């Protein structure tokens, strides 16, 4: 959650300050993925209606969706979602028990929410890949105990542990993706006249070009690979890394999978959020206010 200190900074839209937050989120996401990689795929927890126990309670969603609902209900009461950088995956949450903190209005009012897409690509594409090692190890153990065929793969029964980590990963990815709004607002505020024409005559490609810096993305992926490779290592009791010539094959996390998560999912979806936010940046403004923005550069 954004701290009051961050929001009360002299320049909360400083791109350098935002970059520092995004870099810290890289660490959070990598470590959470390492934790999730300990468990097998467990696809049952992502299938709606697959738990009779939940159906008996009147809940028709998946095990993970139930986890999200229960956890986010508590977080909503603790006013987590009054912070402008927090977006729940669950709708119809209760009101906070405490009064909301007095955050300054930094973002333009908007309804952009990428969480449905995040939940979909995470459960369909990311989990199967990062859990592959644990899934194959489980299958080998089951075969040694005479369990073969369909029953030997994917399910280790750790539904609670896997879903708990899934929630943490999803919340971190959601924050990372939706921080694109702050990036867009920062760049728009610095030079609104460059953006306004492409908003008035909607041109998503032109807006994306204004916010995209290929060199920054290249360095991000390079840094991410180095971090993931470092965190994936095993360390001896004295803290030295244990050499492993086949790092990606037997490491704690699929390093290529972490990079792909960013390259194929997080970065493109963040751009979509940034562009969607910009397309609605003038909503509710008068012509006089828009003219004032055009005069500012």
From TrEMBL:
Keyword annotations: Amino-acid biosynthesis, Aromatic amino acid biosynthesis, Cytoplasm, Isomerase, Phenylalanine biosynthesis, Tyrosine biosynthesis
Alphabetical list of PROSITE patterns matching this protein: CHORISMATE_MUT_3 (PS51169)
Superkingdom of this protein's organism: Eukaryota
Pfam families (alphabetical): CM_2
UniProt KW Isomerase keyword: yes
UniProt subcellular location: Cytoplasm
Enzyme Commission number(s) of this protein: 5.4.99.5
GO molecular function: chorismate mutase activity
Keyword Cell membrane recorded: no
Pathway in which the depicted protein is active: Metabolic intermediate biosynthesis; prephenate biosynthesis; prephenate from chorismate: step 1/1
A GO cellular-component term linked to this record: cytoplasm
GO biological process: chorismate metabolic process; L-phenylalanine biosynthetic process; tyrosine biosynthetic process
UniProt cross-references to SUPFAM superfamilies, sorted A to Z: Chorismate mutase II (SSF48600)
Catalytic reaction list: chorismate = prephenate
PANTHER family: CHORISMATE MUTASE
Protein name: Chorismate mutase
Species this chain originates from: Rhizopogon vesiculosus
Lineage, broadest ranks: Eukaryota, Fungi, Dikarya, Basidiomycota, Agaricomycotina
């Amino acid at each position: 959650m954004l701290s009051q200190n961050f929001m009360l900074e002299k320049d909360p839209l400083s791109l350098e300050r935002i970059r520092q937050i995004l870099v810290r989120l890289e660490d959070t996401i990598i470590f959470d993925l390492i934790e999730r990689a300990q468990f097998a795929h467990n696809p049952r927890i992502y299938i709606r209606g697959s738990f009779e126990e939940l159906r008996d309670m009147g809940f028709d969603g998946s095990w993970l969706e139930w986890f999200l609902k229960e956890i986010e209900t508590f977080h909503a009461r603790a006013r987590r979602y009054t912070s402008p950088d927090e977006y729940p995956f669950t709708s119809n949450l209760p009101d906070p028990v405490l009064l909301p903190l007095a955050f300054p209005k930094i973002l333009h009012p908007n309804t952009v929410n990428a969480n449905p897409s995040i939940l979909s690509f995470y459960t369909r594409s990311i989990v199967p890949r990062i859990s592959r090692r644990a899934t194959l190890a489980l299958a080998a153990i089951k075969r040694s105990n005479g369990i073969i065929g369909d029953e030997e793969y994917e399910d280790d029964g750790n539904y609670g542990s896997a879903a708990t980590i899934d929630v943490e990963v999803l919340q971190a990815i959601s924050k990372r993706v939706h921080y694109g709004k702050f990036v867009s607002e920062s760049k728009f505020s610095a030079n609104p006249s460059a953006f306004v024409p492409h908003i008035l005559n909607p041109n998503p490609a032109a807006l994306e070009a204004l916010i995209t810096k290929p060199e920054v993305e290249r360095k991000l992926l390079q840094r991410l690979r180095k971090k993931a490779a470092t965190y994936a290592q095993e360390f001896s009791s004295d803290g030295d890394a244990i050499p492993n010539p086949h790092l990606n094959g037997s490491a704690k996390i699929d390093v290529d999978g972490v990079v792909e998560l960013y390259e194929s999912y997080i970065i493109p979806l963040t751009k979509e959020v940034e562009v969607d936010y910009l397309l609605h940046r003038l909503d509710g403004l008068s012509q006089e206010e828009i003219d004032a923005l055009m005069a500012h550069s």
